[in-house]
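Audit log entry. Action: structure prediction of a protein-small molecule complex. Ligand: flavin-adenine dinucleotide. The ligand was supplied as SMILES and no pocket hint was given, so placement is left entirely to the predictor. Protonation state taken as written. Sequence taken verbatim from the request; no trimming, no tag removal. Recorded inputs:
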Amino acid sequence: MTETATPAAAAPVPAPSPFGLFDLHVLRVERVTPVMIRVVFGGPDLARMATAGRDQRIKLFLPSPGQPAPRLPDASDSGWYATWQSYDPATRGIMRTYTIRTLDAAAGELTVDFAAHGDEGPASRWALRAAPGDRAGVFAPVTAENQAFEFRPPAGTDWILLAADPSALPAVANILAQLPPSVPVRAWIEVPSTDDRQELGAGPDTDITWLTATGSTPEALRTAALPEGTPYAWVAGESTTVKAIRRHLVQERGFDRTRVQFSGYWRRGTSEDGLQETGEAA
Ligand SMILES: Cc1cc2nc3c(=O)[nH]c(=O)nc-3n(C[C@H](O)[C@H](O)[C@H](O)COP(=O)(O)OP(=O)(O)OC[C@H]3O[C@@H](n4cnc5c(N)ncnc54)[C@H](O)[C@@H]3O)c2cc1C
């Protein structure tokens, strides 16, 4: 009897990652409103980037003080995140979470809107001084179907409630732009001053309330008349305010908790590094 050699089991082919690491540089900077700095990035590889729109999140990497570019592993390193974590935090690229405001992959342009909040945070400080040629890195999707967005109204949604502050205004702008115009929307957006209001794509039954007092959304909601029917709520911004809004919607308004998507985009007194350390960052 002859032994037939069994072919070696084919090694499993790893699924291609839906995300990639991109090398970017600033093309243009525009002050959209007093609080909002719009940075348009270019990069050799941007034709590969994709977005689901809505609240599509990305990880930006900015240079540490004194560095000309963010210190990052090579994009071809499949374990690049672990490699980045192993670098000295004093010199490695500074990681922060942002939203794709617009992506024009064909033109090779990625736009990110930064809410300016002074020099305390490295990302805000960087955006306030950003100029053409400045270097950055970004970890972003390469397929529109990816897990890094949360605005997913379930079937049977009759109307949408949005609540945001400047950090979540880019996401709200995208969400409104993508919703069918016939969907009723009620939005509450906190901004520092009336000059910070933006023109947002709005259907005939979209009602946007601009608030200029920080943390005032829960109070404003308490007296608001809401539409009939089954809602879906998307709430993002400062963590304490976000939690208060969710509590109001679920406990006082009887929203089904599975129909309230809430994300603390930042927390007063804590940097994103602090949120990463406690596992609370997105
Ligand atoms: C999914 C997701 C998407 C996001 N998209 C955007 C976006 O498109 N645009 C955007 O501007 N932000 C966005 N953010 C919020 C942004 O990641 C945080 O504001 C981040 O902390 C900014 O980093 P920093 O280096 O400026 O400040 P950090 O170093 O993280 O914090 C320094 C200090 O500044 C305070 N701080 C942080 N952010 C703010 C703020 N917005 N206003 C006032 N004080 C603040 C902190 O409480 C802390 O005391 C997003 C966050 C998440 C989770």
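Audit: result stored. The longest strand covers residues 19-33. DSSP finds six helices and twelve strands in the chain.
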